[in-house]
């Protein structure tokens, strides 16, 4: 079964630009660097409850061509959700019965040239039409994975609070993330003042948020991966750190969740709408 979100994939044209931007934003260095002979370079930031993988095309292999096509299609940004599984073979059987048309399970491996360590996993991809335009994979890490979370300063990002997906059809999205993927629906709320219906599905220790504009009505357009909300232990210190690093950030304000504080990061995120919020309610 799905146990959480293993990682979010962000694709951008330059791995150096991606690493520089997100090391500054998150307040931490990558935990993994690697390249793929198919034509990609990758850095990974392992957090408490998930990871951020940044990937860029490198060279002229088939993977590089696919990455260039993604960037040419709709720019840099979040491209995939990769859910964690504790039994990939069982999940494949379940998702096949639920008409998600999973690909065959394939193995993967990666070596970090700086540490010399290697990691291994198995994964499968779900049919993109069945997931309404969102690229979704399910992945099972092999035991003793060397990619582990390392605590940082209180002003650094410690985890991901939620991923935002814009949907034109909330009932269709609810059926996918709830009934077919098996995530728990924690909240379904409509607010005319915001012109929004928001649904929160729990994936391990974070939330997949489905956002629907009420005034738009229900349509058949694809869903769209949109934004990320990061958790920090000390939001005041994180705000000061990003200001000192010349990020354009809003002032700190009360969050929608009672007792939380948040601020918005307006630039330096490779086009990803970004919120930072206190890790725990006051």
Commentary on this structure:
Helices cover 20% and strands 40% of the residues. It has two domains: 2-141, Roll (2,3-Dihydroxybiphenyl 1,2-Dioxygenase, domain 1), CATH 3.10.180.10; 159-278, 2,3-Dihydroxybiphenyl 1,2-Dioxygenase, domain 1. It has 282 residues and is of the alpha+beta class. The protein has an eight-stranded mixed β-sheet. Strands 10-11-12-9-13-16-15-14 form an eight-stranded mixed β-sheet. The model has no long low-confidence stretch (mean pLDDT 96). A hairpin with a 2-residue loop joins strand 11 (196-203) and strand 12 (206-213). The chain has five helices and 16 strands.
Strand residue percentage: 35-45%
Mean pLDDT: 96
Query: Which stretches are low in confidence, meaning pLDDT under 50 for 5 or more residues running?
Result: none
**Integer tally of domains:** 2
Reading off the top of the CATH hierarchy, the class of the largest domain is best stated as Alpha Beta
Terminal CA distance: 33 Å
Question: What do we call the CATH homologous superfamily of the largest domain?
Answer: 2,3-Dihydroxybiphenyl 1,2-Dioxygenase, domain 1
Give the CATH topology of the largest domain: 2,3-Dihydroxybiphenyl 1,2-Dioxygenase, domain 1
Dominant shape: globular
For the sheet with most strands, the description reads:
8 strands, mixed
Structure class? alpha+beta
Helical residue percent band: 10-25%
How many helices? The count is 5
Query: How large, in whole angstroms, is the Cα Rg?
Result: 18 Å
Element-by-element helix/strand order: EHEEEHEHEEEEHEEEEHEEE
Number of strands: 16
Q: Please tell me the CATH architecture of the largest domain by its name.
A: Roll
